[in-house]
Design goal:
With 266 residues, the chain is α/β, with parallel strands linked by helices. The protein is 36% helix and 12% strand.
């Protein structure tokens, strides 16, 4: 799947900024360009002030390491401005991306909530076309701002009543799998699950003739070595046994089980 923008992620972040920043110079909400964000840069949070409570990293680069953000999310953020003494702040962080973020480890999973934007908005359908006005612009009069404020207050009331309500995933788990494992592997597993069996090569003499079939039966244990043999047999050029190790395939299979409901990991 190709990553698509223009789904409303940036607009969502800006909406929080409009409700948190009561004037233009306010820094309660700060948006940072995620494309140029470098975790090694000591001045990466220089736009923040002591009053900052929410940071939006907009459109971060592909394949970010969530571990690089863990301390900022769980502990405190050090704001270092040029020619000034560094100071700590405690702020929530929003990370928006057109790709998926692989989150591993209990501590990270417990502290991060992923939610997915559907493709309701795209290049052909935008909020200004649907509502007849550009959001947060001079197109809005007092009535529009009052409607916006009322909606956000209603969202806060729902949170106080019910806490965080996570929406059903659309394609998130599938996209995580495709972003972090080769498409050949996903195709291989999908075909196996759909067809119920895959061909096994003959290991005895190294020839490519078919020895038999490896059947998939839900709930039964399967020999990992047999899966490895079948996969390398299916893709002998890209995943040659001389260079491709079984350990890597096992990691991918675990990911496949994790991001496909109803499968047990191995």
């Amino acid at each position: 799947d190709e990553p698509n923008g223009r789904t409303g992620k940036t607009l969502y972040g800006k909406s929080l900024g409009k409700i948190l920043n009561n004037k233009n110079e306010s820094k309660v909400f700060v948006e940072i360009n995620g494309k140029n964000f470098d975790t090694r840069d000591k001045y990466k949070f220089s736009k923040c002030n002591l009053e900052t409570q929410l940071i939006s990293m907009n459109d971060v680069r592909y394949k970010i390491r969530i571990d690089d953000y863990t301390n900022d999310i769980t502990e405190e953020i050090t704001v270092d401005k040029k020619n000034e003494k560094p100071f700590p702040i405690h702020a929530k962080v929003i990370i928006s991306t057109n790709r998926t973020i692989k989150i591993e480890g209990t501590s990270n999973i417990d502290r991060i909530i992923q939610f997915e934007f559907a493709d309701y908005y795209d290049d052909n359908r935008s909020p200004d076309k649907e509502f007849g006005r550009w959001f947060f612009s001079t197109d809005w009069d007092a009535e529009q701002w009052n409607k916006f404020d009322t909606f956000l207050i209603g969202c806060c009331q729902e949170y106080f009543r019910h806490g965080i309500v996570e929406s059903e995933q659309i394609n998130l788990y599938r996209r995580i799998l495709l972003d972090h494992t080769p498409h050949e592997f996903v195709d291989f597993m999908d075909d196996w699950i759909t067809n119920g069996n895959i061909d096994l090569p003959d290991e005895a003499d190294g020839q490519q003739r078919i020895l038999g079939s490896l059947e998939f039966k839900n709930g039964e244990k399967i020999n990992k070595r047999e899966i490895y043999n079948a996969f390398t047999h299916s893709y002998p050029t890209d995943f040659n046994p001389r260079n491709f190790k079984q350990r890597q395939l096992t990691q991918w299979i675990r990911a496949y089980c994790k991001y496909n409901n109803g499968f047990m990991s191995i």
